């Protein structure tokens, strides 16, 4: 099974470079993960998460490494520049976490989530956005799906959809029928649940935007959607807020059976 560490690409992300260089320097200095944890005043699992890129190395630990290993400010500079890049590697990180997560929770306000889109629906959705190469973007989206659903042991996926996802036409009526049929098909998988927040529901915390929550290596990582890319969230307090938000939306969503009936009813409207 591919690990998060094996997915690191230091040529595409400064945070990945930091993770790879941290492990390389630790091994050069003949330190175990536990021993480095003592140096940094943290536990071995935190060191492991730094080296896998799940946790970003904080500046205080970067400065300790530079002092202990005589790296003349290397780690502090790398962390400084990585933070100044405003997480330009958000999509790289998102696809990695999707591919490795044991559980994925998603809430979508306006669109069918990318992991559940048919090629025709995805093509129609990409056509109305600002994408330089829609076909290349479509290929990436389909690759994301294959990485999640094609695994020997796929993650458990909980999907919450706003009713507008079913009502908003994307592409032709045929495209919508096929897309809604895809939702029904995916919803029959033992590892997937699809639920809908019905029209007429009271205002709720989910109306301010879509989000996702991944469980990777027993740690939850959040993702907040945005028009120009989105943001991966690793801060424990922020991740907790997303988890609570997801639960509150789920409290308002219809159960799986009635949600399925809502999707079937929506299909009938696209004739």
Report on this structure.
The protein is of the alpha/beta class. The chain has 2 domains: 5-84, Orthogonal Bundle (434 Repressor (Amino-terminal Domain)), CATH 1.10.260.40; 90-269, Endonuclease, Chain A (2-Layer Sandwich). The chain is 52% helix and 13% strand. The protein has a 6-stranded mixed beta sheet with strand order 3-2-1-4-5-6, sandwiched between helices. Helix 1 (14-28) packs antiparallel against helix 5 (74-84), helix 2 packs across helix 3 (44-52) and helix 10 runs antiparallel to helix 12. It is elongated, with a radius of gyration of 21 Å. The mean pLDDT is 89.
Largest sheet: 6 strands, mixed
Oligomer: single chain
Rg from Cα:
21 Å
Which strands sit side by side, in order, in the main sheet?
3-2-1-4-5-6
User: What is the number of independent domains?
Assistant: 2
| Structural classification | alpha/beta
What series of H and E elements makes up the topology?
Answer: HHHHHHEHHEHHEEEEHH
Number of H/I helices: 12
CATH C-level category of the largest domain: Alpha Beta
Strand share of the residues? 5-15%
The first-to-last residue Cα distance is 44 Å
What is the fold named in CATH at topology level of the largest domain? Endonuclease, Chain A
Average pLDDT for all residues: 89
User: Helical proportion?
Assistant: 40-55%
Principal-axis shape equals: elongated
Low-confidence stretches: none
DSSP E strands, number: 6
CATH architecture of the largest domain: 2-Layer Sandwich
């Amino acid at each position: 099974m591919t690990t998060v560490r094996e997915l690191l690409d230091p040529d595409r992300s400064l945070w990945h470079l930091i993770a790879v260089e941290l492990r390389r320097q630790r091994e050069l200095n003949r330190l175990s993960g536990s021993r480095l944890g003592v140096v940094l005043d943290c536990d071995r699992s935190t060191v492991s998460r730094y080296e896998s890129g799940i946790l970003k190395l904080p500046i205080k630990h970067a400065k300790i490494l530079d002092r202990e290993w005589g790296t003349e400010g290397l780690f502090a500079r790398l962390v400084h520049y990585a933070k100044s890049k405003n997480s330009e590697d958000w999509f790289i990180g998102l696809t990695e976490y999707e591919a490795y997560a044991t559980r994925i929770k998603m809430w979508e306000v306006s669109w069918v989530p990318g992991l559940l889109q048919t090629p025709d629906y995805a093509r129609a959705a990409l056509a109305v956005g600002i994408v330089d190469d829609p076909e290349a973007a479509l290929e990436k989206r389909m690759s994301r799906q294959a990485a999640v659903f094609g695994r020997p042991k796929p993650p458990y996926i909980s999907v919450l959809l706003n009713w507008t996802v079913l009502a908003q036409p994307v592409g032709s009526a045929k495209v919508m029928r096929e897309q809604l049929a895809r939702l029904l098909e995916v919803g029959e998988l033992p590892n997937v649940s699809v639920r809908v927040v019905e029209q007429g529901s009271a205002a709720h915390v989910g109306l301010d935007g879509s989000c996702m929550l991944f469980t990777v290596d027993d740690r939850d990582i959040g993702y907040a959607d945005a028009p120009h890319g989105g943001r991966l969230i690793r801060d424990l307090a922020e991740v907790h807020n997303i988890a609570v938000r997801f639960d509150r939306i789920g409290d308002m969503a219809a159960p799986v059976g009635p949600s399925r009936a809502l999707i079937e009813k929506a299909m009938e409207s696209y004739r």
